């Protein structure tokens, strides 16, 4: 087990041995392995004590796309719904091919044509938009990174432009941008690396010789905020930057806004990512959480949205899943609706409503087996034919 945490807080072996040795390791005071803590039951993803009540919903009528068997499905609003079922049972067909495009068309009259179904009904006017938060990259440019995506970098640039030396040199906040000419290194266009195309082989990235990978001109790098250049800041992790800017928030009020924005990245479990880490290097799960953070930052709580996630726990540790669930919670507190396609029973048990498809994959699937609370599903009779019920019962007990 590698850790104890992610990024600069990780990188050590915190446990190694047979599964049976975990219990003894957990008893040791110096145990630092979160995996051991979860697997020995010392830490757990707790099931919420009660489910949220709902009364408004959106209904999909006669869904027949791919293997779906002409089913009617109600999606409750303002709460968290999990769509479950074995691989190939029809979850993505229902959510990605019908719910998402149908709702978009109903709300904005744009977007792709939905798959085969009869109609969408219910309290559609209660929501103002629909957002699919997938694992696709957030930007292909080497210059895009998590802090530019959530717009925290704009504030950081302003702060640097306010420093004495910057004023003396007549730099403004755009001088600290790597998207426009001025302050950035023109050799590498602010990317810090030069991409060399190789015939028959993957491109090679070489550190830019003009700036040594520091992405800005020397004069720009001479501007320092409490001894840190803009490059030093981009090399910090989100966690480090929160401590750094938070430490000077008394003198510089703008730091409060920087910290507030960075904290949403920390809240979704990305505290270990470097501010300047190129978006193209983020994993699918990391990209998904950056998108989620950007929505958590949007002030428009008067605009209830429906969020769709397709398997958001892919690649996440128990500990990360806990944080993800807290972000879902935050979305619902703002009045949003959360719809999650998920196989992970720790997430399913935390839903307010479960829609189980199946019983099998392909032609033997596509039926609506069950709709209700997780507890009701776990107690569903075997005749329902739900594999989810069986595994959910093991988790709920
Ligand atoms: N474009 C397509 N054309 C024909 N059949 C498809 C198409 N997309 C999916 N299917 C079939 O429809 C069925 C349901 O697929 P779907 O992707 O909805 O499953 P899923 O429940 O999301 O599975 P997973 O958990 O593996 O993501 C599968 O048998 C699949 O092979
Ligand atoms: Mg799927
Ligand atoms: Zn350069």
Keywords:
397 residues; Rossmann fold; ABC transporter ATPase like fold; six-stranded mixed sheet; globular; binds adenosine-5'-triphosphate; binds zinc ion
Explain what the structure shows.
The chain has helices spanning 22-27, 34-39, 91-108, 146-149, 152-161, 164-168, 218-222, 230-234, 238-247, 254-267, 284-297, 318-333, 345-348, 374-378, 387-396, and strands spanning 2-3, 12-13, 57-63, 71-76, 80-84, 119-122, 129-133, 193-196, 204-207, 305-310, 337-341, 353-358, 367-372. By secondary structure, the chain is an alpha/beta fold. The strands form four sheets. A six-stranded mixed sheet has the order 7-10-11-5-12-13, sandwiched between helices. It has a three-stranded antiparallel sheet with strand order 4-3-6, with helices on one face. A two-stranded antiparallel ribbon has the order 1-2. It starts with a strand and ends with a helix. Bound molecules: adenosine-5'-triphosphate (ATP), magnesium ion and zinc ion (ZN).
Brief rundown of the structure:
By secondary structure, the protein is of the alpha/beta class. It has 15 helices and 13 strands.
Task: Characterize the biggest β-sheet.
Answer: 6 strands, mixed
Question: What helical percentage do the residues reach?
Answer: 25-40%
* Spatial separation of the terminal alpha carbons: 28 Å
Along the chain, the helix and strand elements come as: EEHHEEEHEEHHHEEHHHHHEHEHEEHH
């Amino acid at each position: 087990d590698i850790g104890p945490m992610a990024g600069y807080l990780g990188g050590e072996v915190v446990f190694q041995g047979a599964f049976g040795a975990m219990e003894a390791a957990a008893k040791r005071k110096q145990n630092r392995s979160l995996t051991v803590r979860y697997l020995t039951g010392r830490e757990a993803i707790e099931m919420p004590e009660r489910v949220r009540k709902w009364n408004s919903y959106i209904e999909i009528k006669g869904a027949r796309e791919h293997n779906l068997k002409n089913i009617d499905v109600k999606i409750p609003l303002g709460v968290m719904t999990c769509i479950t079922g074995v691989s190939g049972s029809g979850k993505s067909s229902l959510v990605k091919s019908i719910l998402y495009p149908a709702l978009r068309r109903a709300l904005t009259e744009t977007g792709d044509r939905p798959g085969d179904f009869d109609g969408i009904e219910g309290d559609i006017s209660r929501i103002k938009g629909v957002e699919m938060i997938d694992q696709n990259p957030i930007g292909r440019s080497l210059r895009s990174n998590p802090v530019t995506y959530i717009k925290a970098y704009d504030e950081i640039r302003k702060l640097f432009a306010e420093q004495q030396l910057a004023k003396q040199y007549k730099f403004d906040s755009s001088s600290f941008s790597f998207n426009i000419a001025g302050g950035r290194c023109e050799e590498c266009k602010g990317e810090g690396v030069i991409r060399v195309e190789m015939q028959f082989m993957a491109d090679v990235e070489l550190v830019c010789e003009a700036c040594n990978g520091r992405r800005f001109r020397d004069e720009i790098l001479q501007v320092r905020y409490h001894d840190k250049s803009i490059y030093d800041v981009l090399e910090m992790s989100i966690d480090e930057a929160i401590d750094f800017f938070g430490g000077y928030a008394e003198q510089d009020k703008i730091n409060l806004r920087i910290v507030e924005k960075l904290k949403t990245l920390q809240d979704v479990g990305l505290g270990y990512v470097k501010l300047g880490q190129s978006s193209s290097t983020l994993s699918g799960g990391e990209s998904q959480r950056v998108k989620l953070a950007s929505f958590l930052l949007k002030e428009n709580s008067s605009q209830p949205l429906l969020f769709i996630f397709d398997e958001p726990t892919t690649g996440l540790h128990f500990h990360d899943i806990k944080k993800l669930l807290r972000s879902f919670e935050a979305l619902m507190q703002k009045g949003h609706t959360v719809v999650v396609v998920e196989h992970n029973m720790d997430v399913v048990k935390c839903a307010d409503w479960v829609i189980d498809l199946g019983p099998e994959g392909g032609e033997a699937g596509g039926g609506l087996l069950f709709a209700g609370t997780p507890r009701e599903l776990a107690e569903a009779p075997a005749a329902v034919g739900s594999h989810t019920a069986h595994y959910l019962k093991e988790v709920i007990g």
